[in-house]
Amino acid sequence: MVENFCLEKVRAALDQREAEKTYGVTGTGLTPVPWSAPALERAWRTEHPKRFAWFAAEGLSSRVPKEACRLRAAGFKNFFDSRNGARKGKKLGFPDWRKRKHRSRFRYDVNERRAVAADAAACGIDVGVKTFATVADDDGTVTEIHAPKPLKAALRRLRKANKAVARKQRGSNNRGLTLNDRVWTCSCGVVHDRDVNAAINLLAAVKLDRPSA
Length: 213
Known about the structure:
- This protein has 2 domains: about 1-85, no CATH class; about 125-210, no CATH class.
- The chain is about 45% helix and about 10% strand.
- The protein contains 6 helices and 5 strands; from the N terminus they run ααααβββαββα.
- Strands 1-2-3 form a 3-stranded antiparallel β-sheet. A two-stranded antiparallel ribbon has the order 4-5.
- It starts with a helix and ends with a helix.
């Protein structure tokens, strides 16, 4: 809803500017376009008490529209930069309306820290290469979560970065292993899974940091 409000304000300003140009208005005389995050936030604070009175009545956090304005501003900046040649890659289209069924995400900060019980369940999570994540629970269960397709490009960059780091480490063992060698057999005959080992090590680290009851 807030993102659509922001889009409405920017579209209205752009339409007004086009109309003013037909009247001979130029330069600073044209209506400014409030596409930056601060400008969108000011517009929201000014208009929402009357247009969206329920927002304040429900006691919703002011950080929610602040985050929505920030996301819209980033989208507008990417569009204008793409159109002006300041952004590399394929040309971006103008931001579109958010539909009700759109599974949009949002986040906002809160001044609250949740206390974790000393006996709460813990797990170690390793973000891997072959799998998106390997989770080791403290009951001994190991779960592999496969990477969604949008992560493939990022994982390729991650593999390159990990290879560069591995080459720079001095005195590391198993230098003959490549990043693609996720499972290997020790000279003693034990079979190791690197993602599982990493998740188990993270779980052990969590238990060490947790205060005793």
